[in-house]
Amino acid sequence: MLLSALPACSSGGDTSKTEIVFGASRDITGPQAGFESYGSWPLFQMWADEVNAAGGLQVGSKKLPVRLVEYDDASDTAACIRNYEKLCTQDNVDFLFGPTGTSMLFAAAPIANKYKKIMIGAEGGATTMEKQMLNLPYVFLTCNYSTRFQMPMFAKLCADKGAKTAFVCYMNDLHGAEYNSSFQGEAALNGITILDAVSVPVTLTDINSVVQAAKASNADIFCMFCYPNLNMLLLDAAPKLNYNPKVMIIGPGANTGAFGTIYGKLMNGIVCEGAWSRNSSASAAAFETKVLANTKIGPMNIDYWGALVYYSAAQFIGQVITKAGTTDTEKVRALMYTSHFPTAMGDFYFERFGTTGGAMIAQAAYAGQIGQWQDGVFQVIDNDKHNTAAMVYPKPPWDTSK
């Protein structure tokens, strides 16, 4: 368990509160521990540090500091559930931030609803959860995902460039299954034929056979719907095996500064889920500068999928609490459904699932859905108002020079 060094939480009403406490269960250790560096938590910490440096959040007539409570679930779903139960029943936190990844979100969201604690989602899509979201009014999703609104955009971009065939590699967990299913549906709608779809375990250590099969298929598009450990295997293997399809989309991790730093020019032309760019707006450029200078994040851990989203979500709920003048869950929740606030991402607001469900950031509020590394800069290649650069197609040859 990690705590910021601030006074203990008061369990009384707003008049006696000494702080506002946000809690989460995260993968501090375990297979997906990398998210602890380049995922949402460092951004939530950065926001809390800035709030506290300014004296705290204004709540009624006083300012209250923010404290973050974090437990390690070591990438174990059962531990994640236990941690959220503890946060709600023993720590009695005021609000929750989401766990790491799709499967964890699926398990944790009902806990937030059970104890009537607002949960601001983090990494993790919710394709499988969408029907449930109609009955999860305390859950507010932030991370855009396969069906909302990434794969529709990606398939349309590929089809517009003339791509006709695809080979899919996806990991055998909820994230991989959702992206595979979503892309296959969107591919069919856009006249793209799936030549093969291969499922791989999260613990895979050798991806050469998958790369060789994809190369033999001669598909225009190669999709890698996997987590960072597997995506690194791909980037190690594909150049060596001289596999260079016209489009290569790689999942989480590929949109981070770590991949850009480690693989350098090899990232040129790689398409990623996301997305935002320094070129999205003046506020996005200022945000990037601030993140790059942050010693806990920096060039290695900046994330061009979620960083701007997570930070802006924290800014949003902070402004909602101030507007409500209280940390009362029901008063804050009511405002979250209807409020618009300026953030680093721009005009930030949620759209509700039905009339009684939870909510998700509105599509128009995102800075983008699909990105591409172009000469060392991460660009948004959406074919709409969010575009910062045209999609490079076909993908350039691998540049192995240093």
Structure report:
With 402 residues, the protein is of the alpha/beta class. It has two domains: 2-146 and 283-365, 3-Layer(aba) Sandwich (Rossmann fold); 150-273 and 369-380, Rossmann fold, CATH 3.40.50. The protein has 14 helices and 19 strands. The strands form four sheets. It has an eight-stranded mixed β-sheet with strand order 1-5-2-6-7-8-17-16, sandwiched between helices. It has a seven-stranded mixed β-sheet with strand order 10-9-11-12-13-18-19, sandwiched between helices. Strands 3-4 form a two-stranded antiparallel sheet. Helix 13 (307-324) crosses helix 14. The longest helix is centred in the C-terminal third of the chain and has 18 residues, at 307-324.
In short:
This protein has 402 residues and is of the alpha/beta class.
User: How does the major sheet shape up?
Assistant: 8 strands, mixed
Number of strands: 19
Unreliable runs:
2-13
Determine and state the CATH class of the largest domain.
Alpha Beta
* Helical content class: 25-40%
Q: Report the structural category.
A: alpha/beta
* CATH architectural type of the largest domain: 3-Layer(aba) Sandwich
Instruction: Quote the CATH topology of the largest domain.
Output: Rossmann fold
Q: Kindly report how far apart the N and C termini lie.
A: 41 Å
Quote the average pLDDT: 94
CATH superfamily of the largest domain: Response regulator
Count of structural domains = 2
Strand order within the widest sheet? 1-5-2-6-7-8-17-16
